[in-house]
Design brief:
This protein is α/β, with parallel strands linked by helices. It is built from 11 helices and 13 strands. The protein binds uridine-diphosphate-N-acetylglucosamine.
């Protein structure tokens, strides 16, 4: 029998790609999202790609009563992947309480129901942001956690602790996936990031500039102590990231997890500068990007990229895509979006 997985934030960017990966690997999926930063278009794209109509609940996870209905209607859920959260770093600095309330209350509710309903596996969207301003890369899972650079980052740090503390004496096993910089889109070209608010992340800013939605873009900082002066990040293809969730659930379901909570970095282990990313885009697409060099963006760390040895050894995960795939798929998606959505 197929294992049933509840995906929170399932109409979002990483959530929707993960649903596809789960369906393609023999799982059954139920999706919940409050739709504040995503669109149900993702569900129709998922259906086109996989042929599966995923049951969808338009519910805010902060509403415990409404959320518990899902578990009454699906009493056979064995895994949860919890993506639903606010994630704009800048907004979190302006509205910290909104971030604490939303990201932590929703987490507490879904954990409460996970314990009550004897869920076997709980996967949490964490972030490399929990490492804070690191002085050295690559970082592995034992790299000491620094002060968070933003309230958003703090919600991820606190989320990890809340999960560890509350699952210690339960039968729920959890995996915390620390994502590096997710980018790119589904190979079909009909699914990708579809933010309701203007994106601030580098790759969608690049594609929106290239297609003319923005006149120009700025490289934030050219005086960092890096090979070309711009910041270094570890850009991971969203399909590779999605698959890490499927492997994490399998790891728990197959009985390989030996402690209540495991942490894994999910990045490709290769740091690229902002300028290298821009040049990779130009090379892959043949489009000349209108960009300017500008001052640093407050809160940015100089360089961070991952050591993913642990995920490779325990989960059997390794990236299948490189930066060129990221740029080609992101561009294909931007063009599709521009024409059809
Ligand atoms: C941050 C967090 C990440 C989080 C994400 C959510 C860290 C280390 N990472 O990613 O965990 O999931 O926010 O949004 O805290 N850039 C430009 N011009 C632009 C946009 C970006 O130069 O118009 C540069 C940034 O300065 C940065 C790089 O591109 O150096 C990547 O930026 P972005 O895509 O926003 O991601 P992070 O800030 O690394």
């Amino acid at each position: 029998m197929k294992q049933k997985v509840l995906v929170t934030g399932g109409t979002g960017y990483i959530g929707s790609h993960t649903i596809i990966d789960l369906l393609e690997n023999g799982f059954e999926v139920v999706c919940v999202d409050n739709g504040i930063n995503s669109d149900t278009y993702a569900l129709s794209a998922i259906q086109k790609i996989t042929g599966v109509e995923v049951p969808y609940y338009h519910i805010d996870l902060c509403d415990l009563e409404a959320l518990s209905i899902i578990f009454k209607e699906h009493n056979d859920i064995s895994g949860i992947i919890h993506f639903a959260a606010l994630k704009a770093v800048g907004e979190s600095v302006e509205k910290p309480l909104l971030y604490f309330k939303n990201n932590l209350e929703s987490l507490i509710n879904i954990l409460t129901l996970s314990i009550q309903n004897h869920i076997k596996g709980f996967i949490f969207s964490s972030s490399c942001t929990v490492y804070g301003d690191v002085s050295q890369s690559p970082v592995d899972e034992n790299t000491p956690i620094q002060e968070a650079a933003s309230p958003y980052g703090r919600t991820k740090q606190m989320g990890e602790k809340i999960i560890s503390d509350s699952l210690k004496h339960t039968t729920v096993n959890s995996i915390l996936l620390r994502y590096f910089n997710p980018a790119g889109a589904h190979s079909s070209g009909i699914l990708g990031e579809l933010p309701i608010n203007p994106p601030q992340n580098l790759v969608p800013v690049i594609t929106e500039t290239a297609i003319g939605k923005r006149d120009t873009m700025t490289v934030f900082g050219t005086d960092y102590p890096t090979r070309d002066g711009s910041c270094i990040r570890d850009y991971i293809h969203v399909e590779d990231l999605a698959h890490a969730h499927t492997l994490s659930l399998k790891f728990i379901f197959d009985g390989h997890q030996t402690q209540p909570v495991e942490v894994f970095n999910v990045g490709i282990g290769n740091g690229l500068t902002v300028l290298e990313i821009i040049h990779a885009f130009e090379k892959q697409t043949g489009v000349k990007l209108n960009y300017q060099l500008g001052p640093r963006r407050p809160g940015d760390v100089t360089a961070i990229y991952s050591d993913y040895t642990k995920a490779k050894h325990l989960l059997g995960w390794s990236p299948q895509h490189d930066v060129d795939d990221i740029m080609r798929s992101a561009w294909k998606w931007e063009q599709f979006r521009n024409e059809h959505l």
